[in-house]
Each structure stands twice: as C-alpha cells, then as structure tokens.
C-alpha cells in the first residue's frame, strides 16, 4: 500500500464538536469581490501603489535576514519568488501589499510572554537555538515578525477579496513557548487566532497544511479550539519524529507520487469543507513533497504540485470560502529553481482568480 489513512483513526473526539454544521450562510465570491474596494487602512499593511483589482500578493523585502555562509536554510528564496512573478509577468508591482511587522500583542495571541521576551531580546540559549536551526540575530527576529505580519495581512485581505497569497510563511513547527525546525513564530496560528478572536461569533478557520512535514506546532496550539480545524497531509517517516495530533492527520508513505497524492487530498478536502464550513482557509503550500527536495521523501513533480495548488484553491473558492496562502517549506540548493517552484502557488492562484471571475 502506497499510503495509509492512519489519520482517519486518529481524528480526535474534539472533531465532532468542530464538525457541527455552521448555522451561518457561506459568503459567496461575488460578495467578497463587491467588498474589494474598501479602505486598506483597516489592514495590517498597505498597498504599495494604487488600488488594483488583481490577485493580492503579500510581500516584504524584510522577509530575509543574513545567515552564516553555507547555512542549510535557503533564505534567498523569498525575494526571488517575487522577482520571478514580476519578471514572468504573472503579477505587476501594483498587486503587492506590504505587511506591517507583527506586534507583540498579535504574537501574544499564540506565544507566551516569556518566550517572546527571550526571542525578541536575544536571550535564547544555544540549545534552544540549535533546536530552531538558526543562530539568533536581530535580523532573524525582524524577519520572522514581518513574515508573520505577512500571513496576518494575507488572511485579512483574503477575507475581503476571496484570495490572497504571501511570498513567505508556513512556520508550522513553532510552539507557544519554543521554536523548532526553522520555525520561530507560528504565523499560521497567529493569523488564525487573531482573525478568530476579533469577530463575533468567532470565525471558523480551516488550516490545510500540505507541507511534507507535519504541522505539529499548529496542531498542538489548536488541539482544544473548536473554531480552528487542523488538516495535515505529511510523510509519516519525516520530521518531526514525535508527531502531535491534528484534527485530521493523513500520514503517507515515502515515495508517494503525484496521482496517489492528489487523490489523497481530494478524498478529504471536499467533505471537510462541507462539514466544518469554515469562514476562512489558510493554505500551507509547502513544496517539499517535490522529488528533488532535500528534506522531503515523496516524489511529486512540478506539475503535481501545480495541480495540487490549483485543486485546493479552486475547491475552496468555488464554495465561496476565502483562502490565504503561504509558501511553506522547500529545500534545494539551487535558489532560483526553488523560488520558481514556490511561485507555482501564486501562478495557480492567478489562474483561479481569472477563471473564477474574482
Ligand atoms: Zn516542510
């Protein structure tokens, strides 16, 4: 058997609470578009130039920071994603929204005051730094805070326009009180908690995490939160060794290829949307399930990843549910090749935007 549906047996009891049908009607895409020209001052960011009716892209030049030479993390990919999107005329600069830095208050929705104090002020000890994979620096703190601000802004804009894509984000291994696996702040959790908390009744948020690694930090953070549903499809033998329990975990075997992977996602996403009835989907479009990825163990192709992204966004948007996307993990030494791979989610989103008349 190429893959197992072990997650089906591990859906928590909490899931039945989360699956209660929402009484509120679904927003339709047309209504979202009608609301598109509200003032951007209410967002945690600004539009670089003039108002644009095209797909919103969230990007900040401070998504990057310096790392020691030969560091394993491909930091240079973030500006290259935007570079290729503009160079290939997928987007124009008018589509770019610039996020604010995530405030301590917003980060405090998820992270403990003690952890924020030690991370922001450089009191992380060596052992803790090793766990994160990064040497601490002020630049690293700034980068992570802008990245989290980017995901918050993407989610806010998506609620208004139906779809929005950041050029970073997906730091799903960060826990409330510590960082892990290249993740210092959990951007997905911060965005979900913030947007859930400022609405009444609370928004229902579905996190679709298709990074090859389990979204363990996110799963832990929302394990007792009925308004957020965590769905993770990941390689069972990959990091993290000790998995947390998402609301739905689909653990797949090494070597899974496009067709089986896509059918695995398609077997679950529609019924999750129909039963949980989210007000917003946060989509982690990690490209580390790719066959060439240094840290993945699956065998997806570029085409397979594009089809996956297209399928997820079309399936969600066609039900009138807004989607915000983050790029998630991707690890290849060739930065340009990797950035092009990450840009597929924005290319697929552009196609969805056009085909769905958004
Ligand atoms: Zn990953």
UniProtKB/TrEMBL annotation:
GO terms for biological process: epigenetic regulation of gene expression. Pfam families: Hist_deacetyl. The keyword Hydrolase applies. InterPro entries: HDAC_classIV, HDACs, His_deacetylse_dom, His_deacetylse_dom_sf, Ureohydrolase_dom_sf. The keyword Kinase does not apply. Keywords: Hydrolase. One of its GO terms (molecular function) is hydrolase activity. Residues 71-336 form the Histone deacetylase domain. PANTHER family: HISTONE DEACETYLASE 12, HISTONE DEACETYLASE HDAC1-RELATED. This is Uncharacterized protein hdac12 isoform X1. It comes from Cottoperca gobio (Frogmouth). The lineage of its organism: Eukaryota, Metazoa, Chordata, Craniata, Vertebrata.
């Amino acid at each position: 058997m190429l893959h197992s549906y072990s997650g089906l047996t591990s859906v928590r009891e909490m899931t039945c609470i989360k699956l209660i049908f929402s009484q509120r009607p679904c927003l339709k895409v047309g209504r979202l578009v009608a609301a598109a020209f509200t003032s951007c001052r209410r967002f945690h960011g600004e539009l670089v130039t003039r108002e644009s009716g095209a797909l919103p892209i969230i990007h900040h030049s401070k998504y990057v920071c310096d790392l020691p030479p030969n560091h394993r993390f491909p930091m240079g990919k973030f500006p290259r994603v935007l570079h290729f999107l503009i160079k290939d005329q997928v987007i124009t600069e008018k589509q770019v929204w610039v996020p604010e830095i995530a405030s301590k208050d917003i980060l405090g929705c998820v992270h403990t005051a003690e952890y924020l104090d030690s991370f922001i002020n450089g009191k992380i000890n060596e052992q803790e730094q090793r766990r994160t994979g990064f040497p601490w620096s002020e630049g690293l703190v700034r980068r992570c805070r802008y990245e989290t601000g980017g995901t918050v802004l993407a989610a806010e804009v998506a609620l208004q326009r139906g779809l929005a894509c950041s050029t970073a984000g997906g730091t799903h291994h960060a826990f409330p009180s510590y960082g892990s696996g290249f993740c210092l702040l959990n951007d997905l959790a911060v965005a979900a908690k913030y947007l859930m908390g400022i609405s009444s009744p609370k928004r229902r948020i579905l996190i679709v995490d298709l990074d090859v690694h389990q979204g363990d930090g996110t799963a832990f953070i929302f394990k007792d939160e009925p308004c957020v549903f965590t769905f993770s499809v990941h390689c069972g033998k990959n990091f993290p060794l000790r998995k947390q329990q998402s609301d739905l975990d689909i653990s797949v075997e090494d070597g899974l290829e496009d067709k089986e992977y896509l059918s695995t996602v398609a077997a679950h996403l529609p019924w999750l949307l129909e039963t949980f009835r989210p007000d917003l989907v946060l989509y982690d479009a990690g490209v580390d399930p790719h066959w060439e990825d240094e840290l993945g163990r699956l065998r997806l192709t570029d085409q397979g990843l594009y089809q996956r992204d297209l399928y997820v966004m079309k399936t969600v948007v066609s039900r009138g549910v807004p989607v915000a996307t983050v790029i998630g993990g991707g690890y290849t030494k060739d930065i340009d090749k990797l950035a092009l791979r990450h840009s597929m989610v924005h290319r697929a989103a552009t196609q969805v935007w056009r085909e769905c008349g958004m």
